[in-house]
Here is the input.
Amino acid sequence: MNVLIRGRARPVRTVSFDPATNAVRLIEQRLLPHAFRIVATRDFRETARAIRDMVVRGAPAIAATAAYGLAQGARAFRGRNLAAFERHLERVFQTLKAARPTAVDPVNAMRQVREAMAAGRSVAERQALALEAAERFANRSVEECRAIGRHGAPLIRDGMRILTHCNAGWLACVDVGTATAPLYAAQAQGRRFHVFCDETRPRCQGATLTAWELAQQGISHEIIADNAAGHLMARGEIDLVIVGSDRTLGRTGEVANKIGTYTKAVLAHRHGIPFYVAIPLSTIDWELRRGADIPIEERAAAEVLGAWGVVASPGRPARKATPAQPVYVRVANPASKARNPGFDVTPPELITGIITPVGIFRPRELWKHRHRLGYQG
Ligand code: MRU
Here is the structure.
């Protein structure tokens, strides 16, 4: 998408690769919306740390980062011994996989890269194939998001008020976004609508990232406290909910997404509001048979006990001189502990439809359409 940099709109991808320096280039998302900076990770361990520490986040974005990270690790190997190369590659794969456990996209992306590499007969051939495959994954991911936009745009009618949770926008992907793709497509078709961004405690990706994206795109929006959605729904002020997903089970239609998604789905069901989930094909897990088996990331208590931001007076924008580096402030009682599950699982009966690059399906119909949806079992 276009980002206004020093007064000029420039197209930027969330994740890209620089072959000359063998570096993965990432938008440093922890600084947004206060500063826009691109950082480079120089080896696969640094790339894994960037995923773990949420320099880059969002399932399709960490998938492309992992795919590039795998290629980066492969290209850093010195030697011609194929068996040693494959052992090294397995270490790289496991390091990147372990960085964040809930999203299935990084594993699906790295598997695609490894499958493509298998055609190479030498280390050098496999190294070249790895980067080609990672680029292919990233480009396909963008195309899939555009297709989600085409399928999802008709859901958005003029004047609608749409709720979204966390950030399933272009910052969570390589470009375009999943939950935001129908919004951007509807906007391009001339429709006007309003978006409520759940702030999404504890890390506030809705208040910082989604709000920043929508502001850049000129889409009318307001940030709401996570607890406000039920009130707005009860008053008839929300017409539609669209969220993303980190892992959607192809066999059951269960959807793992940012903590709080389940709560919003229950509320939407209670109020008869359509609840859609937008996903690229890399988000589908065809193996797991029960949502209860999805690994749910437990993050640091500090995220719940405090918050990050820049210094400002309430009601006033931060002053120009305010350092762009966010500071951490403790909010909670110092003697208390906290529990911090990062994701939850929404059952299929609460979901109206899954917007995919090949069409919109009822969650329980994913399995029936599995061959169109990329199942290769
Ligand atoms: O913890 P995060 O910021 O990586 O969580 C992101 C989400 O939960 C998004 O909704 C998700 O990745 C959707 S993918 C576009």
Summary: The chain has a mean pLDDT of 96.
